[in-house]
Amino acid sequence: MTTCPPLDLMQSWVAVVEFESVSRAAVHLGVSQAAVSQHVQALEEFIGISLLDRTFRPARPTPAGLRLYDDACRLLEQANQIVVNARNVARAKGTTVRIGCVDSFAATICPQLVKGLSSSSSKITLWSGITPVLDEQMNTRQIDVAITTMGATKRTGISRQRLFSENYFVVLPRRFPRQETEDVGQLAKRLQFIRYSLRSKIGEQIQSYFDGLGVELERSFEFDATDPLLSLVAAGLGWALITPLCLWQSRHHLPDVTVLPLNTLHYGRKIFPPLERTFYMLWRRDELGSIPNDIRNIVSEVAQRQLAPDIARIIGIPEEALFTFPATGPGASSQ
């Protein structure tokens, strides 16, 4: 036996409460006043209670009727969303989904991401680049999904979700004679600091980190990409700050470098505090069906189950020190 009243009866009841009149509700619904009255009576018979206090003129909703109104509004909204969701999934499955992501993400996680999405979309195209470029491509609708390190968006109709964060590490030449803890000033005198350029989000973040600590380092080598940066470290020409994905992107250099936690460096008598880079997914609301949720699940699985164990084993850093993930639920926010 069903315990849920028919939706058309609840739709009539919602209209009666909102328009405070059976006749005005009928006009809104485009039906006769008699039809609305019959719906209200049928709903009362179905539930077994009075929804209207007819001792008043005009009749007023009873407390039970007002509670039913609140619940009916939510139920009707969910019912409408069922149709929208089904149409969105059908639309997404028949279209090309354009995903843009930063280079280190593209080189490490995207192969498995594209493979995992192949069953939910007819075609996936992948773009890679630095965060400011991808943000502009999202703004001009050149891509449908952006995976970047840009934490905020003011554009309407865009949903944003944190995927995961990765910690920064110190990377030194393998044969560099290091001490258990290094003063950054003394280290910079013995070995050049190699930095990402300020054109990149990662370079901007590292510079802001140093500025906050009051650390000034000579600007000698700057790169937009990881591979030339890490090649100079591997060749013994300098040291750098880097993340696990960037290391894995250029892992052919790993035999020639040493990776250390940030707290092995100090400035004055203070230990370097943690620094992390966070990846976010941005997409247009109500256009891609279940694909954003699929992306979140695949990325979490690849990073936690595949990349973390492999990277930890090679660089000698515990898995739990590499990445952090949202503690509960998808945590999406729309802006």
UniProtKB/TrEMBL annotation:
Gene3D superfamilies: Periplasmic binding protein-like II, Winged helix-like DNA-binding domain superfamily/Winged helix DNA-binding domain. Transmembrane segments: none annotated. Pfam families: HTH_1, LysR_substrate. Keywords: DNA-binding, Transcription, Transcription regulation. Signal peptide: none annotated. Residues 5-62 form the HTH lysR-type domain. The keyword Repeat does not apply. It comes from the Bacteria. Belongs to the LysR transcriptional regulatory family. This is LysR family transcriptional regulator. It comes from Aromatoleum evansii (Azoarcus evansii).
